[in-house]
Amino acid sequence: MEERHMDLRSMSYEELQEKLVREGEKPYRAGQLFSWLHKEHAASYEEMTNLSAALCERLAKNYPLCTLKTLAMQEAKDKTRKYLFRLPDGETVESVYMRYRFGVSVCVSSEVGCRMGCKFCASTIDGLTRKLSPAEMLEQVYAITRDTKEKVSHVVVMGMGEPLENLENVLRFIALLTDERGLNLSARNITVSTCGLVPEILALAEKKLQINLAISLHAPTQEQREQLMPVAKRYPLDMLMAACRDYYEATHRQLTFEYALVKGDNDSKEDALRLAALLGELNCMVNLIPVNPVKECGLSPTDKTDVLNFKKLLEKNRIHVTIRREMGREIDGACGQLRRRKA
Ligand code: SF4
User: Fold this and answer.
1) Of 94, 136, 162, 165, which one is the catalytic site residue?
2) Which terminus has fewer CB within 10 Å in the chain: N or C?
3) The domain over range 3-62 is classified in CATH as 3.40.50.1980
């Protein structure tokens, strides 16, 4: 992203300081502004009381702040909240707030729409509109913080979009989230999920970040994966697994494999055994997700008892397994569903 097109909230501390000094401000102003943007989550320059009125006015005129407008919010019985936000250009994205025993987690979108075409996903039905800037990703976290008044401890990039298609902006987003002068999140509390873009997984491995990488696997064989995820044709399963091994070698971070259970498609006893064999020696865990029903996709979730049986079989084969907490179906649980309904 070129600096001249950048929102101030997308800039690193150093870039912000350079810009302000170039415009005749003292270097310490960068610290004040950065803190308002990333620690206080200010939604306007007027809130920045230790900056002069003249500077606030000039910044507001030249660098409008990226803020999101809440168009809809749904709350489930377990207090999970799904937000539909309007971006400055009128596009919309979804974000999710979840409260756990270990803290507060926010799931953000990285793109408007998605072009990956996964069969079980509502976000991809209308294709990709555009990628999100770092500021637009950060603002999802900050807008939820402003609304809930709770400090976010974990961030998951698993909403609408394929994060590794927007790698440069996602890396900048992570750098800003983990900046100790801002939210100061631990990299270990950030998870990025990919449908399996092999070159970008390898590029990410080179950065040796301590983040968590989740792979949307969803099938134990190439044939089955191709049926659910068109990306499998571009990056076959053996290539993907080799990239995962390389990623682990480079980072020593345990990988997570996301597996959405679709009734009659990928949830048999044989599927569980094939999955266990595929993951074999890799240091990883499997996150089972009872797929959320999406009208347009015609896929049904696996029954609860079959989910538990699938889990038991994997565990018997020494695979760590968790079952993802189901987000209330009463709040358009599937990613992209609320946005489609409101559209
Ligand atoms: S699951 Fe993720 S990568 Fe696949 S279509 Fe949906 S948003 Fe895109």
Assistant:
1) 94
2) C
3) no
Please answer whether residues 326 and 333 qualify as being in contact, where contact means their C-beta atoms are separated by less than 8 angstroms: yes
Q: What is the number of the ligand 1 atom nearest to the C-alpha of 193? A: 2
Residue 295: both structure tokens together? 């009208």
Map tokens 């300081």 to a residue.
Answer: 17
Contact indicator for 292, 334 with CB cutoff of 8 Å: yes
* Model pLDDT for residues 208-259, shown as the tens digit of each residue: 999 999 999 999 999 999 999 999 999 999 999 999 999 999 999 999 999 9
Q: Which CATH topology does 69-342 take?
A: TIM Barrel (3.20.20)
Q: Among all chains, which residue has been given the structure tokens 């927007």?
A: 166
Whether 81 has a pLDDT exceeding 80, the answer reads yes
Contact 85, 68 (CB under 8 A): yes
The single-letter code of the amino acid at 257 is: F
Q: Where are the domains of the chain?
A: 3-62, 69-342
Whole-angstrom distance, CA of residue 222 vs CA of residue 220: 7
